[in-house]
Every structure is written in C-alpha cells, then in structure tokens.
Amino acid sequence: MGTSERKEREKERKKMLILESAEELILEKGLDNLNMDEIAERAEVSKGSLYQYFKNKTDLVLGICNKATDMLSGQIAEVLTKDIPGIEMVYTIGATFLNFVRAHPEFFRSMRFFDNLKDTNQLDDSDYVEMCQGNMNTSFTSMVRAIQIGMQDGTINSSYDPKELAVLLWSTSHGMVNMAYLHQNTPHFQLLEKNNIQMDSLFEGYMKLIGCGIATGDQDVQDDSKSFFETDLN
Predict the structure, then answer these.
(1) Which among 200, 108, 89 is positioned nearest to 148, based on CA atoms?
(2) What homologous superfamily does CATH list for 57-232?
(3) What is the arithmetic mean of pLDDT over 22-47?
C-alpha cells in the first residue's frame, strides 16, 4: 500500500469517526442541540481538523443523511433480488423502511433535516445534497421496479402508471414511517397510546389497505399481509 493510499484510508477513517460521534450526540441530545465543539471532543479531533472534513453543522448533518440514504437504498435494492412476487416486494420495501427508522432514529432525523432544509445557500454549499438526492432516487427506482415486476407476474393491477403509483406509495409510507418515528422518539406524541393503537397493527392495516388498492383480484391480500407481518415485523 502506497503512502497516498494510506493517507486516503486514514482520512476516510477519521471522517467516519466524526460522523459516528455526531450520530451518538444526536441520539443523546437531539439534532437541535448538536454543536461542532462537542462533536470534535467526542471524536477526539481538533476543531480545525473537524472543519477540514465538514464546512459547518449543516454539511455534517447532510453527511449523515448521505450515509443513511445510501444504507437504506442498499437495503431496498436487495429486496429486488428476492424470489418473491412483486406485491410481496412492495410489502417488504415498506417494512424495510419502517424497520430502518426503528433501528436508526438518528439517521431518520438527518433525513427529515434534509427534507426540511429550505436555505438555498446551505443547499448549494454542501457536496452531500446531490449524493442524498441520488440515493433517494435509487430507492424510488427500486420501488418502481418492484411495481413493474408485480404487474408482469400478475400480482399488481397493471392499470396504474408504475411511477405514479410509486410516488403514491412512497409518500404515504413516508407518512406512516414518520408516525412511527414520532411514536418512538417524541414523548408528547400520544395519539397512538391514547387510542390504544399498536404501531405494528397500524402498519399492517395500512399495507392491507394498499394491497386492496393495487393487488389483482387473484390475490388474497388479507391472508398474505397477515403472514408477511407475522414473519417480518414482530
């Protein structure tokens, strides 16, 4: 291994250490309370060194978002390699998204931050914006492909436009996942508790509802969904 390669590997290692330190602090204190001084201290790097890797807090959070969306897009793309009907791929992608948020709330916070970022100067100032958008487009393309597979194998109604249907599924599932995030991470969000509703049951009902709308008449949506959720979510 040459000197330049060792330097690049060390640079990447330190960059990942900074990101992991920031992720830990987001879990401990929340995104709003994240500051560069504490990140540098946690990562055991100088503040000057920290700014060599990330221009500012926004750039760093977008770096986490890039890491998150890259990981999620990889998990979703893996669903397409399974030998299952297209309708089951759609169910599995939804469950993958939900389980990702449950396992990595700090990642979802960075994704919410990216979605809500309106300052064009901040967007233009970070190299991670295009990367995040690319990862999200990859996930969307995987959803479109799952729908197309379902239309080809006869499990999804072919009267829909695959891309339009993917947008509908992606936006509504994002709302469900956001509710799961609030339920898990926001103490004052008590809608589910006050109404004695379990998140798994709610998500199962949502997927059954979606299945009834997109599945062909040959599919027993209720039985298939029940079996799927018992296996993968509980």
Answers:
(1) 89
(2) Tetracycline Repressor, domain 2 (1.10.357.10)
(3) 93
